[in-house]
Amino acid sequence: MAGMLNYTAAPAxxxxxxxxxxxxxxxxxxNTPLSPPPNFKAPPPKPFSIRPDSVFDIMGASxxxxxxxxxxxxxxGYSVNVVPASEIPPDQYALGFAGFKLKESxxxxxxxxxxxEIYEYESCPFCRKVREIVAVLDLDVLYxxxxxxxxxxxxxxxxMGGKQLLPYMVDPNTGVSMYESDDIIKYxxxxxxxxxxxxxxxxxxxTTLTEGFAMIGRIGKGSLYTxxxxxxxxxxxxxxxxxxxxxxxxxxxxxxxxxxxxxxxxRGSPKRQILYxxxxxxxxxxLEDPNTGVGMFESxxxxxxLKATYAL
Length: 312
Ligand SMILES: N[C@@H](CCC(=O)N[C@@H](CS)C(=O)NCC(=O)O)C(=O)O
Hints:
Layout: E1 13-17, E2 23-27, H1 55-62, H2 64-68, E3 79-84, E4 96-97, E5 100-105, E6 116-120, H3 125-137, E7 140-145, H4 153-161, E8 168-171, E9 176-179, H5 181-192, H6 205-214, E10 235-239, H7 244-255, E11 260-264, H8 271-279, E12 286-289, E13 294-297, H9 299-310
Parallel strand pairs: 6-7, 10-11
Antiparallel strand pairs: 1-2, 3-5, 4-5, 6-8, 7-11, 8-9, 10-12, 12-13
Helix pairs in contact: 1-7, 3-5, 3-6, 7-9
Residues 46-49, 95, 243, 245, 282-285, 298-300 line the site of glutathione.
């Protein structure tokens, strides 16, 4: 999937392409080769379990569901049937419970060849609106995190679009780039959906307010830059906006200003089957770090890994 990127990763620089064809080079902040922390061992997946020291983090991140309901839980055209577990072959992903499994499906629009590029940060309600439509449309996105005081990607937004305003989207498939969350949402549903903006994303001020309330349990997280090493290749994360386990990982990716490709896989996403086949299990978040060769489940351990590998 990393092969779909629209820039060439060089050992010493990031090359970030803009819609107008200009290329900005961002110098790496550390020359030391990246490696996993000493004695690193990827933990086994433990679905729906919370590490004791993360209980309050996960509870805080779960509050979003109260304010935003199922937006970003389900992909577009989601439908589900409950069937006996024996009806699902073992090589097929399906969430199971008490002898039954969920047979889920979706109706998705045209797929972009290259990931959409979005400059944003976690705690911004307008950015969150765009992240929700990414989940609904089941898109892959190359995120350039722009925490406050972030030295790398915030300045690029001003250079590319002429002003310091987030979120900012670049679609390398069409050359279109734009500010304004509502315009980005309309563009994305027109191009990669059925043209309709979901109701909960079309309520104007009420949408923006509930997006803000959704993050009330995580105030201050995912906003401020923590000095870090900028990796030569973007990390890859399998996750979706509504999952509280994914949320706590995304906050740290933003704080450390780590570019990452999100493989969004809300309920009904066909990408769940892809991850299932690739690693023999489906659970999110799942992190792949091409800079160190690490692939891992488990939110609390992913947070520890990111801080140990990238924080300065
Ligand atoms: N202990 C894991 C729990 C993660 C988890 O349970 N994630 C849910 C989504 S919120 C999941 O992937 N469930 C399996 C499924 O949906 O099939 C962690 O902290 O990462």
